[in-house]
Amino acid sequence: MSVRRRTVLGAGLAAVPVLSSGVAWAGGDGAPRATDPGAYISFTGGAFPLVGAPVVVSADDHPGVVRVAGDLRDDIERVTGVRPAAAIARRAVLVGTIGRSPLIDGLVAAGKLDVTGVRGRWETSLQTVVDHPLPGVDQAFVIAGSDPRGTIFGAYDVSYGIGVSPWHWWDDVPPVHRDEVWVLPGRHTQGTPAVKYRGFFINDENPALGTWAPAYFGPGKAPGYPGGFNAHFYARVFEVLLRLKGNYLWPAVWGRAFAEDDPENHRTASAYGVVMGTSHEAPMMRGIEEWNRHATGGTDPYGGTGEWSYLRNAEAIRAYWRAGIQRMVDEGFEGVVTLGMRGNGDTGLPDGDGIELMQEIIAAQRQIIEEVTGRPAAETPQVWTLYKEVQRYWDRGLRAPDDVTVVLTDDNWGNIRKHPSPAEPRGGGYGLYYHFDYVGAGRNYKWVDTANLRNVWDQLHQAHAYGNHGLWVANVGDLKGNELPTEFFLDYAWNPQRWSFDRLGEWERRYARQNFGAAAAGEVAELLAEYGRLQARRKPELLNRRITLAADGQVVYDDQQTPFSFGHRELERVTGEWRELGRRAARIGRRLPEATQDAWFELVGYEVAATANLYALREAEFTNLRYAREGRAATNDLATAAEGGLAADLDLADRFNSRVAGGKWRGFQTQPHIDYGDVDRYGPNAPWQQPEKDNVALPDVLFPAVRRIEVPEAAGLGVSVDGDEPATALPPFSPYQTRPQQFVEVFNRGRTPFDYRVTASVPWLVVDHPRGRVTRQVRLEVRVDWSRAPAGRSSGELTVSGAGESVTVGCVAERPPSRRALRGFVEAGGYVAIDADHYDRAAGQWRRLAGIGRTGAGMTAWPVTGGWADSAASWPRLEYEVSLLSAGEVTVWTYLSPRNPTLPTAGLHYAVSFDQDEPRPVDITTGADDGLLNTVWARNTSDNVNRSATRHTLASPGVHRLTFWAVDPTVVVQRLLIDTGGLTPTYLGPLESRRL
């Protein structure tokens, strides 16, 4: 048996150039010591007191450096209450750029400042205390940069160290007051970033950011386009980007044109020192909205037809592109030019996907760059982003010139589509476009942060390990609301070696401490980790969609069903977990100082409380619909509860909009998230698009709508059994079961209470309350007295009587004949459920990724770059002992993270076997298309799991060895379920089986 294997990475990554991070080079001869951000700051003593020291910068330095010195003065004042002066004094803070600041260069020339390990590097800073640096100056704290952004990052690093959050303005985070602030002795640096260009994309910004920003900062300045974002807005964006040590921005594009919405936008970017780019659909430094505004009525300003078609309107489009590069040259801003061409509106090119045409387009673009700049094209940074359908060009052999950075992408749902091949190193290197926000196939997710940092880490670690270091950009939607994943993305891009998987908890504690103080940091970090894990189960926007497979294998969407099962109490359990998380958040929030309450609500409190409320709303809504079908007297109570959930949702949004920070964020919390799928209300795009009409978001209503019924006066007996409807028998009982205890609900169909009675046909069936009175309904737990139950499979009945009627419920008990014959995970109820990290034996190297799965950990073979040979004997494997009660055919369901085929050869494989059988390989990408975003792919990403099945025949009952084999690297296995005939559909799978 053989499977096509990827052996491309067996020798490691020697062929892929990797930029060093700060930790990698620190400690060499004369090099400064690499530290965490702000780690050289003390509040109890040190070498240099910051309070009272002026912050001095040369006017000859870069405008961004001069500006950041002012921010540092502001930040010191925020923390200490004492504003630094700007003129030199006996003790001073000196801020400047090597080779640009007379202050810094004078110190270097005089031998006072050693810039070894900093000079000549990219965006690298030095913080150190220098004695007697200048005449009349006893001591200086010097912040020097290898280039202007190095200096800017160095200054903001001091701000971070003294306690100013990068989100101080965006989330109203107050710093802790300090009477003393000191700089520790030594030469400190945060190193050189591993990824050269690091930034984010403001996108999908309507309605939230698009409503709030023009109202707060004033309208855009392009005539007729008041919704544009002006330079006052972008100044705040640039500031937080730089505080996060990012340097690169894709500006907003939904009906917005960065260059036109305010003539000061590009100049402001230059003044801050930010590198500008444009998104994957916007080539040659021009947003697509610039074309849309002026190419109308069959004409365009360049003498063409107005079509966004290179085949039919090439001359006009080339003139349009030329104007974009000319503007970059004339205004002198720093930019990275996007190459290639896609369709207007984030679609495929209307001219088809011929390689020759794309070659012609890229060649024409590079010729324009050379003609306008007067320099070889390779001297202007360029990217070609392989987003969606564009990756097909690469897969079919098209290559951009070697100096171009090829930006690889995720599938819009946080799963990378392709890694660099070590066989193809590039002078321009590779980049990554990643998503924390998305609009499109499957369904939009835009409302709150839904990133699981464990999953994000896994994907960014893979990118780094495979040599992707050129340019990383994340789609952060409105930015506000995605603060945590945005900060982690940029931190990891700066220094991947610092943030190993085992240090993610430390990163979360640091984030919590910076925003809420040290006292609460530990429990806030734990809360955030659990929030990310629970959110990653399913986007909140998808809580009214169930996805199933029809008999013919077709994917079926039902937008009026919960994805969770009533069986196994799954809907109850997941809702309960969110309720508990909401209670934890509320307790933490109540203990925080009053000054921190706004920041808490903006960064944590709202997203936790609102999501917990949404889960409770959905539980009430779908329970109401079930009750209505059953005619329960409690139906209308659940309708009221669901409507109350909608009211609570709107009230939380109103608090955000009108009561937080004195109304600063009015209009921001307006993103719909409940009414998805309501085709009758807002048309055929409803299954994926946010509730909107004429491109204006609609306020949420309950969808599906709750039902109210007429409840008669007379009592009426109703009986419902544990599980999804309809069912007339309880799930099988086993002494080894781990499922929640089976139950029967006795309910009233009328308004008049009645007495009930439950009798059992066999002595081993036990009901916790066999007699009682029903007003609305009662739940009765049913158990088996195993001391009285016979061995093997036995049947019995419960008879429920009341209101003049009787209902019979079937019961089955399965008692294995001898415990001594059982070992490992024991079958109960017709299945075995195993969490992948609970293996008995492992061969090869494996890494446990705690919290990456929907219910717990995942396991992945290590390293992610592979290296094992193309034979089953060398594949890493995990072995599990299981005890099965019968022989015959079984189905093994393997739950994996929904990864894509990222490596050079086709597919992504694992294998499964029992005992001595040959491993049975599976390509988990079969049927899924991460470029066309088909329904198989959408099912995997929406459910955030890839479920794959293999069938096996076992000759005998008893103990067996189930083996999972990692054929390819990057596979993450979460769970293994063995269906022996009793497994019923649930979203997460049943609770893990008992292990002996």
Describe this structure in words.
With 996 residues, the protein is α/β, with parallel strands linked by helices. It is built from 21 helices and 41 strands. The strands form nine sheets. It has an eight-stranded parallel sheet. A six-stranded mixed sheet has the order 1-9-6-7-5-4, sandwiched between helices. Strands 30, 32, 35, 37, 38 and 40 form a six-stranded mixed sheet that branches. β13, α11 and β14 form a beta-alpha-beta unit. α16 runs antiparallel to α17. The chain is globular and about 100 Å long. The relative contact order is 0.08. The N terminus is likely disordered.
Q: What is the topology, as strand order, of the major beta sheet?
A: 12-11-10-17-16-15-14-13
Radius of gyration: 31 Å
Helix content: 25-40%
| Unreliable stretches covering 5 or more consecutive residues | 1-29
- Alpha-beta classification: alpha/beta
**Total number of helical segments?**
21
* Separation, N- and C-terminal Cα atoms: 34 Å
Q: Strand count, sense and closure of the main sheet?
A: 8 strands, parallel
The oligomerization state is: single chain
> How many strands in all?
41
Mean pLDDT: 95
**How much of the residues is beta strand, in percent?**
15-25%
Question: Globular, elongated, flat, extended or rod-shaped: what is the shape?
Answer: globular
